[in-house]
Amino acid sequence: MDIADRTLTVDVIAALTYWPGIIWGGQENPPDPVDLTVLPPFFDEVLQELPWWNRDWRISHVEPGVPLEIGTGHHGHPSPFTEVSVPGAVGPAGGESLPFVAKVGFAGDRLIRFHAKVGEVVLAPAVTPAGRLEPHPFARVLTGLMDLRGIPVRTMARETARSMSTIHMLRSGRHNPDPLLTREIARVLGMSEADVRVIAGLDDGSSEERRTGDGPCSGG
């Protein structure tokens, strides 16, 4: 989903930053009502850019959003952008609707990122090009932990009795972590096995990887 260089209108920004259920220092309480009807067409426009999205589906309902992060220097902790979670419903005209929630990140009037969840399916921008498998999420965490500790691939391979190619594949997300390898990696990282298992998405006491429903949605 390509969202680069998308500009948000003043009305959309006002709707995304309308948080009547939230009390914070930069907003009147309660805030003046705004027009939320501008959000369904905005979400429809973004979703329609997905080549596999069902063109008959529309956002039928939205509610005021909840801020996940606020772009401000309040309390001395500046954030470069604002991210909001907006719940609602989506479905075909005259058909059964599914719960919908959008996570919208923006800086000023520029959309930075957009994630959506339809029912139990998460829609998010891909990490790799079309036609290529998405990397296992453990890859980024393992790479960061190794780099922070100054552990080179050669050392990790030697200490875990694995080939360097296996460690490279783990770091690139092309190889799934298994319980035995996770135990050995935890020892080299100086972390508990339980912590690394959680990071790797492995069920406690299970030999199988935890799977989550984060694949594409056909829209019905």
UniProtKB/TrEMBL annotation:
Gene Ontology molecular function, alphabetical: DNA binding
Top-level taxon of origin: Bacteria
Region ranges (Disordered): 201-220
Protein name: HTH cro/C1-type domain-containing protein
Source organism per UniProt: Streptomyces showdoensis
Lineage: Bacteria, Bacillati, Actinomycetota, Actinomycetes, Kitasatosporales
